[in-house]
From TrEMBL, chains A, B, C, D:
Pathway: Amino-acid biosynthesis; L-arginine biosynthesis; N(2)-acetyl-L-ornithine from L-glutamate: step 3/4. Keywords: Amino-acid biosynthesis, Arginine biosynthesis, Cytoplasm, NADP, Oxidoreductase. Its EC number is 1.2.1.38. This is N-acetyl-gamma-glutamyl-phosphate reductase. InterPro entries: AGPR, AGPR_AS, AGPR_dimerisation_dom, AGPR_type-1, NAD(P)-bd_dom_sf, Semialdehyde_DH_NAD-bd. GO terms for molecular function: N-acetyl-gamma-glutamyl-phosphate reductase activity. PROSITE patterns: ARGC.
Amino acid sequence: MNAAIIGASGYSGEELVRLLSRHPDVKLTAVTSRSLAGKLVGDQMPALRHLVGDLSFTASNPAELAASTEIDIFFLALPHGVASEFADPLYQAGKTVIDLSADFRLGSTRVYEDYYGQAHPAPHLLEAAPYVIPELADDKWKSASLIACPGCYPTSIQLPLVPLLKAGLIDPKGIIINSYSGVSGAGRKVAEDFIYCERNESMKGYGMPKHRHLSEIEEQLEKAAFADCIVQFNPHLAPMSRGISTTIVAKAKLKDSLNSVYDTWEKAYGGKPFVSVLPTGTFPDTKHVTGTNRADISAVYDPRTGNFIINSVIDNLIKGASGQAVQLMNLKFGFEETAGLL
Amino acid sequence: MNAAIIGASGYSGEELVRLLSRHPDVKLTAVTSRSLAGKLVGDQMPALRHLVGDLSFTASNPAELAASTEIDIFFLALPHGVASEFADPLYQAGKTVIDLSADFRLGSTRVYEDYYGQAHPAPHLLEAAPYVIPELADDKWKSASLIACPGCYPTSIQLPLVPLLKAGLIDPKGIIINSYSGVSGAGRKVAEDFIYCERNESMKGYGMPKHRHLSEIEEQLEKAAFADCIVQFNPHLAPMSRGISTTIVAKAKLKDSLNSVYDTWEKAYGGKPFVSVLPTGTFPDTKHVTGTNRADISAVYDPRTGNFIINSVIDNLIKGASGQAVQLMNLKFGFEETAGLL
Amino acid sequence: MNAAIIGASGYSGEELVRLLSRHPDVKLTAVTSRSLAGKLVGDQMPALRHLVGDLSFTASNPAELAASTEIDIFFLALPHGVASEFADPLYQAGKTVIDLSADFRLGSTRVYEDYYGQAHPAPHLLEAAPYVIPELADDKWKSASLIACPGCYPTSIQLPLVPLLKAGLIDPKGIIINSYSGVSGAGRKVAEDFIYCERNESMKGYGMPKHRHLSEIEEQLEKAAFADCIVQFNPHLAPMSRGISTTIVAKAKLKDSLNSVYDTWEKAYGGKPFVSVLPTGTFPDTKHVTGTNRADISAVYDPRTGNFIINSVIDNLIKGASGQAVQLMNLKFGFEETAGLL
Amino acid sequence: MNAAIIGASGYSGEELVRLLSRHPDVKLTAVTSRSLAGKLVGDQMPALRHLVGDLSFTASNPAELAASTEIDIFFLALPHGVASEFADPLYQAGKTVIDLSADFRLGSTRVYEDYYGQAHPAPHLLEAAPYVIPELADDKWKSASLIACPGCYPTSIQLPLVPLLKAGLIDPKGIIINSYSGVSGAGRKVAEDFIYCERNESMKGYGMPKHRHLSEIEEQLEKAAFADCIVQFNPHLAPMSRGISTTIVAKAKLKDSLNSVYDTWEKAYGGKPFVSVLPTGTFPDTKHVTGTNRADISAVYDPRTGNFIINSVIDNLIKGASGQAVQLMNLKFGFEETAGLL
């Protein structure tokens, strides 16, 4: 099977190149980038020199790609808005597309416009494009050919919360989420705020109270809870390259129900290769999931407040983007779920 | 005026040595440490070589210190429990003592026992020892000779919250606090969990849901609010040497009262040298306060939830410990508030 | 094929567990550690949770291991001296042993005693144990059953230098080497000098002028040069977890012979998967090899001094230890050289 | 006395603002920057908020500044070439100017042109402008009104070497210097190579074999040695914000003369507040000088090679730039040498 990455110049794109180059079941045959077309991938991503041989970036034209017969699966690592320019013709041509942008993450075009500041570029595709965290979805999405890969923060939040909301163990109202992301979360952005001396030894919030991912978080939590779910989401930047650490405070519906939380997680994630449920009192550490497709989660209960405090960690570029995209491909095409991801 | 630091081997002790060595109005004449007695301060704290000359650590005996006539002010940088062994005789001998431990931070011996796992070592002194964040206290404490210097997390929390609770702008119930500390917050602790390769590129929670500082936070917030105040406090370790970043979610009592928050802060901190109130939407950054005695605070309001999100940053070793202690000395003895702290 | 790691509690041991757990051709069946016996590997090395299943550390007894018929290859990740206690009986029992310690790296027992401060523990095995950097050795070593895996600094030094010395392009006299290692080079050592706040934002030399690896470096360079080779080796610690950056100054034997350097490297490393020769003027970056088994090397010529300045980088735990050990196994047993290493 | 900083938008400029704001004997009355004119210094340099009050950046016009009567001393923190545009009229107008650029560091216009790629912009001033590391100069420079402040790498190199060359203890030929700088050495440069994720956990060389500072290093070492002095200078970037670590290999002229090295240093630096000579075997650590105007130096002797290995560390922004500039001002105007620098 042949794969292409469209728009591979960023950090998620680079991680996709790494994962697909090592994948036993697919061949990475095309890597596109408008700005890098003609250049060797190994020169632009020197960390991957031993993996990419003489592969070069190519320019990309949606219509040509749609007409090509060589490529079986397309990963879109493009900005929102731009992704649709590719997704639409590729979808119409019957290709399989896994989109890492925000374009197909939201069900509501109104919310998209509110949060992304522009009209939705391809509303006619929304129904066709399931939003999938593999551990949380049933198998119906596998028949779709356009799949929305969730955002990094939302993945770190939904993995612990969705099963608990579905089981009715926590109050969907009043959830407070604090997330801390490594600097790669900002992408390969060249701006004064992101140079080394500004971010090193620095911790700060940003984008409060209405970060773009909030739209996706609330939409998904509401689906899980069958109820309104207005959350407080506080993103921050932490002085590390990769990793997201999320700490959630949610009201327990029943007293002393920590066991139920763990039972619910056990049922949801027992046997799943990429979610580790840690004992209460063991706090997940971003360092332990960096470079992996794993999420580590745990919870404590505070009898003084009646709250659960839930912690989760992921690698923002892997389980929060490229690794999850590869996991989706694996599952859709019947490969081992862990193929290329260990 | 002559000053002594008792128990100076840790990071707060080192920072006190730095600050007092440069102070225009006092002379640091003694630095004690049981483990380092006899050694040159400059050899143990090479960063201070140019400041400390040939000062050596001495052993310390509470009774002898109490009997000495040379030293005017004692800073106790000792573990809780041990601090009282010095504070008691020094206090009885009429010395001025600024205690950086937890021994005199709590008004309730019951809470002390609950959180620190031992009976309070000097309950008879509690009444005499005011707990003082200088910006939040009236002047009465200045007549005390034993003063409790607040903890690092509590300082980062009280500075933004206390004026708002006093003004009735936020609901004392349901406050959620997430704090992220640089690794020096753990002190100079030699343990596998604190070696470089374990903490570098790592973010994780710890001590939830009942960190020791919670006792101090709640007691002080309740005083400010004249009401019960059960908070959720989530401490974390961040991969940096110094700094605390605190993010607080608190329910606004009135709609659209962000202006009142800023007015209240302006009234509390206008003209204060060590608190900077940043405009809404400007998020404080630990990097900007590292090495200073400053706290930077700001807030945003979320009309969707009715919450304020309040951010604050301090240097945990300075405004969170040694700098605040020096500020207390400055104010008590009528020096410039900023003396030795710029 | 079944593999065992003896003494797996350190960082090199952890990296070996990672690499062997993912290896397509071997099964990691035993992981020993005196201090961790009985504990789950996944609990002690949480970063590997998804790889190790319910594997536990076991205690290890040299005689029992030698008598066992289950295990085909043993990796010794033990301190020098201790390694021989295992290597000897395992070798006598006809097992294949790859030793990551210093015990079989030196040909001379006198030099071993000089640098390691103790008599060589198993001099009778020295002849049987080849010292192998795979890219620099001919195939004879593959018949050996006890193989010495080179040290991290020496690997970063020999890869660029050995072909040049063999080709007579540089003067074996007067070579000056500066190396900078990430803190994991010190192992999982719990000491005040290695806690986060001491090593973060810190750069310093150590162990000059006679670091233990010097013995190994000189012995190997002399073999390559057929001449005496007294080098200056300056090791340092750099504030990062992993990686070695080495900068070598060597006198060119012929003027304007940079092309010959590159030709020689091309001949030595063309087609080798784990050495990348970068163009002159492109300086290798530790970040680009971290997590890989690759060495990146390049050189510039200074006509003012007649010196080559040669730069190389490796991941100290992979090409400098565990990855090289796995590469040795791959080659000895006829697996793909890159198996488990991409 | 009133001071102005011309071109204060970079990191050295920021450090100058910090130092002069706290200086007891001068008042910082003007801070200029073409790009930031009109903006509050405290908004652009939030770390200095508590120091700068409502000082704003102003635009700067060389002629106007030269005509002004308010300012007594000008610090030029400008790029080379641009600095001369200010230095010339200010000098002609009789002002005191301390220039942190390269414009007046070299005695030879030919070498300037060779290394900086342009004709020297003000050759007529070269004779008037002494190049001064205060610890290494006699007092004659104090009568000059235009003073060249040395570069960061050169300061870390000359402090240990110049006394030894003057004393004839080391061979001026064949000196090999490796230096590692924190990322602030590149200034506040906004480029992909300097964003956090590229520099974090990364170590690499650059600018070999002919970094611009080489010209300054050789010119000064030759003056000290009264002999030709062609050195190999290898600069690198290290993953930290500040600090330079320099390791020098130099041939001893006499056997076993380490004592003479220490005697010579003792004579040169005994009683000097900003140079600490550490015992042989104690290696200086950048962390110990960060935030200070201090240089720490030490040396070992290797009897195997007959070389001294000399280590030095400074804070590149302080002793390597702004601190040294303030020290020059202090000495020229008869203030305490350490005023504002402790």
